[in-house]
Amino acid sequence: MTTGTDARSTPPESPDLSVTVEGGVGLLTMRRPPANFFDEALIGQIVDAARRLDDDPTCRVLVLASEGKHFCAGADFGDGGGFAQDRVAVSERLYRRAAQLFEIRTPVIAAVQGAAVGGGLGLACAADFRVAEAGSRFVANFALLGFHQGFGLSVTLPELVGRPVASDLLLTGRPVRGEEAVRIGLADRLAEPGRVRETALDWARSIAAAAPLAVRSIRATLRADLPDRVRAALEHELAEQARLWATQDCAEGIAASLERRRPEFRGT
Description:
The chain is of the alpha/beta class. The chain is 48% helix and 15% strand.
């Protein structure tokens, strides 16, 4: 296998996701700035691009990045992206695609600038590693919106930070800044301000320099049954979300978030 030296785009390219390969590293860049909200289509594009690069002998590591101020603010409950019409059905399709992220065979590093919120945190935690900067924010804000966490965070978050810390983050919804994220294991490396993507790419190149068959073998052993565990968690998460989405507290939580005010929950 060769890592290659010249940057190249790998078709098909979309307005929402650019894909390039250089020096053994595939760079997948979400292009929905500033918040990079996702929907089923964008998650599907990421999965399909990663699958193509799984079979590309010139690509040994993936970096997932984004344009704009924030890495990813999760699903957009404002205009809905279909959520307003049938949130459960749309989320079921979305989670079916999200589960496929955990079946990717190539190591993934997420370059997290700005915020990774809700489902955006889930997307970051689907990667093998996360690079942050001091100003990065990791936020599991589900309880503040009135519903259960999703995107497999029931598995990935405790695995990264331990159950007590995961419980704290999920039950309070408090933001975690870059330095704390590294300290608790939610992020793996702290970049200089404005250099998150460059730091992730440098790290990816060091992995790409290792024996590729061994890298994939080691990674497969370490992740073991993770895809199956995430798939089971997604089913449970969606069932709990569907139940709680029907509550008055959830309507209040989402409305308060969109109106940028403090929610008033009543337990109904």
